[in-house]
TrEMBL record:
Keyword Transmembrane found: yes
Keyword Membrane: yes
Name of the protein in its database record: Major facilitator superfamily (MFS) profile domain-containing protein
Cellular compartments annotated: Membrane
Alphabetical keyword list: Membrane, Transmembrane, Transmembrane helix
Region spans: Disordered: 1-24
Lineage summary: Eukaryota, Metazoa, Ecdysozoa, Arthropoda, Crustacea
Amino acid sequence: MCHTPREHQHTEWEDPHGDSTPLLSSTQSKSWRVLLPPIRYVVVILGLLGCMVDYLVRFGLSVAIVSMVVDTGSPNTSLPLPDGACPAALNNTQHDSVSGEGTFDWTVEQQGIILGIFFWGYFITKMTGGRISEMVGPWQTMAVSLGVSGVLSLLCPFAAHLHPMALASVRLLMGLVQGPSFPALYSVLARWAPPDELATMVTIAYSGMSCGSLVAMGTSGWIIEHLGWEWVFYGGGILSLLWTPLWLAFVRNSPKNHPFVTPQEFSLLSLNIHVKPKRHVPWSRLLRCWRFLPCIMAEFASSWVTTLTTTEGPTFLNAQIGMSLDEVGSVLTVGQTLTWFAAFIYGRTSDLLTKNGILSKINTRRLMHTIGMVLVVLGLCGLAWAGCDKWMVAVLLIVVMVGCPSTLCSFTLAPMDIAPNYAGTLSGLLGLGNVSGFLAPVITAQLITHAGCWTAPLLLCAGLYLAVGLVYITTLTTEVQDWNDYDEIPSTHDNLNV
């Protein structure tokens, strides 16, 4: 069960990760303070760029494989052509078939393994990555995660020429090392975001995911055409290695003793001094805190929608509606662009509502999730019954995509709301919901095969998102739980609440 919240214990924090050593002399530090914006803004911008680079490295293969193999086969068009497909789709089947011009004669099964094995490694380490980052240090963990990912991205072309399973092995390692990156960023932001800027900073940082997808779609085609598919991997790897030293130079685990923080900014962030990593996790208390379970369920539903729109969306638009591949690319580019801007709007609106006392924190979380839920559910239902009007379908799909980032202001903030000292651990546990990334494509394919159309998977997704959203809205809490200060709870108090 969740226990009665306690007041924070505002004690001085001696950083256990040894990251507070100034880089510059006091004179140099003062000159840098004049040149730099507030350091928390530098942290969030570098977080955004880190998320963008993470997605570029992660999804580069999905774009490059079209030009790597002789025939891309079915991994990108794995769903069967529905019996109820629109006439335009039936007419365009031959016209829009994709055939690669590469030299790798890989089977469909080999391509499927290469494309999917990353997410098995990612799923494994994301769950534990939050705790790893709290013990090692989130600043250090994220630097290692993206730095090593960059090196592995540079090795992908060599591995591909060596053997398809060599490339699969590199992708598995990439998934394993990237798993802790996002939970680590949670832990960093928990210490650098003032309470009235939390939602804004989180949404800006994690909007890098949409930015990365947008950059990948907008540049990969040009890169492949003019430089070759290898440079999709080289580009992502080089950007990762350029980002890493900037992160190491300008970010720390805590504002305390950061060489560039002004006294004014440190005073603003002084409320976060109590946020510190704990040596032990109160697992029994955490697991009995049933109000966190709907957050995992919400992540499951959100991941399902994201998989359906971004992974299966191109197949739906092409195979069901009959859009050309150029039209599909335009729709997804517009959708990702609007999603990126929507994330900023959700975050800033959320902070303004709480800062000005218009709504309480808990009701602001409810409002943001409700807005997104309405857009997603109505958009999915509209897609199910929109027929073959391709531009109406395009608008409805974009509506769904724009509704998705509202979750960055709802259950995504739960780790920081209820247990900021364990934000990394809890954000890793949210990753349990990502199992829907494996289930959604399989179930969607089965439903289309048996029903002969996309209506059933779209309505299933809408019903799942609505049901889970209602559970989350009615059960959420934003109160800091007493086990957040587990190390300070006296043994007698601990025994009374077991």
